[in-house]
Amino acid sequence: MADLTIREVRTTLLSMPWPEDPWLAGHPLGERRDLVVVEIVTASGLTGMGYLHLLSLPLLRSIGACIEDAMAPRILGRDATAVEAIWQDLWRSTLTAGRGGVTMMAQSAIDIALWDVVGKAAGLPLHRLWGHCRSEIPIYGSGCFRNSRGDGMIAKAQHYVAQGYKAIKMQVAHIGDLRTDIDNVRRMREAVGPDIDIMIDVNMGWSADIAIQAGRKFEEYDIYWLEEPVMPDDYAGYLRCAGMLDLRVVGGETHFGRADLKPFLENPRLPILQPDPMRGGLTELRKIATVADTWGMTIAPHLFPELNVHLLASIPNASWAEQMGLLDDLWVSRPKIADGMITAPETPGHGLAFRPEVLKDFRLA
User: Fold this and answer.
1) Distances (CA, A) of 89 to 69, 72, 83, 161
2) Which of the pair, 27 or 303, is modelled with greater confidence?
3) Which of 61, 114, 257, 286 lies most in the core, judged by the most C-beta atoms within 10 Å?
4) Per-residue pLDDT for 365 more than 90?
């Protein structure tokens, strides 16, 4: 086997404009795309890549500094296959100042890069390294943004349906009032017809009582799920909503790792969890999926379908992948999406590489 001793950890900060894509109009994610890219170089020359897309978080330099100052020195000289040991060491070494936030996001980028190394060394895509379960996973069209108002959300949903998607996700709350939200949902159902699943994302915009009131109205329109109805720490509010509504109540993208999701795992009233690989890495997502499966819960991870497809293709309780197209223009190649399904690639590791000009033209000093 190749010498996988870690010899170098490279951290690159990228900031770039959004593509000129009319279907990204109305997104709430800031004027530029900020990414942290980590490359782990081994003694054999084999290199793994991990990345974070920070969406609207103003933490680019903070996370980069955390990787360079607190984490890279701890993993130099270690074997890249010691993924679990490295995860535990990075978590424990930042415990008193972390347990989430910047530190866990920083170690998530490293974790993703380590798994890329291991997959490449084995000559296997991650979903086969972890135990292949399926090649195709349902994927829904996301990003029917509230800022584009009712007509804009409907137009984007119809765009997805025309591409063969069988499910779309629209947003409510934060702007307008509850009557407008209910009317937008009614209009969406009329526009896409009875055979398209509609997910609704609240983005933590309501209290539990408002979410229950709205959810009861939404049930009339055969809604697939109500996502993040309340703030992430309002576990009681989540469970109240789940207990008082007939539609699915889901969440988890803003939670950090298994510990943050423990109240949902101990009270499995949310049928679908949506963990984010940027908040624990692939190591933690696999553990969340296993515990969730024990309680009959499925997994529909947050965004990043090009990466999450490997998790979903390797677990028995996969539910959905989410496509918003936020990074599609940056990759040399990405997984195939057609007819409402995403296909797991067969390239070793996670199979992702940024186009060379992306790393060159948008690098921050």
Assistant:
1) 15, 12, 10, 45
2) 303
3) 114
4) no
Cβ atoms of 9 and 72 closer than 8 Å: yes
Cα–Cα distance, 293 to 93 (Å, whole number) = 30
Q: What is the dotted CATH code of the domain comprising 6-123+355-361?
A: 3.30.390.10
Question: In the chain, where are the structural domains located?
Answer: 6-123+355-361, 128-343
DSSP reduced 3-state for 31 = coil
Q: 47-53 and 32-42 as β-strands: parallel, antiparallel, unpaired?
A: antiparallel
C-alpha gyration radius of the chain? 20
What is the residue-wise DSSP string for 153-174?
HHHHHHHHHHTT-SEEEEE-SS
pLDDT digits (tens, 9 = 90+) for 146-180: 999 999 999 999 999 999 999 999 999 999 899 99
Distance CA 334, CA 352 (A): 7
DSSP string, 188-232: HHHHH-TTSEEEEE-TT-S-HHHHHHHHHHHGGG--SEEE--S-T
Q: Which residues pair with 171 in a beta bridge?
A: 201
Residue 270: count of CB within 10 angstroms of its CB: 24
pLDDT in tens, 185-225: 999 999 999 999 999 999 999 999 999 999 999 999 999 99
In the predicted model, is pLDDT for residue 339 greater than 90? yes
Average pLDDT over residues 303-308: 98
Whether 94 and 257 have beta carbons less than 8 Å apart is answered as no
Q: How far apart are CA 329 and CA 301, in angstroms?
A: 21
CATH classification code of 128-343: 3.20.20.120
Tens digits of per-residue pLDDT, 63-109? 999 999 999 999 999 999 999 999 999 999 999 999 999 999 999 99
User: Between vectors from CA 187 to CA 184 and to CA 190, what angle results, nearest 5°?
Assistant: 155
Q: How many CB atoms lie within 10 A of CB 329?
A: 15
* Residue 184 CA to its chain's centroid (Å): 26
Angular region, 174: left φ>0, alpha ψ -120 to 50, beta rest: left
H/E stretch holding 39 reads strand 32-42
CA distance 81 to 4: 7
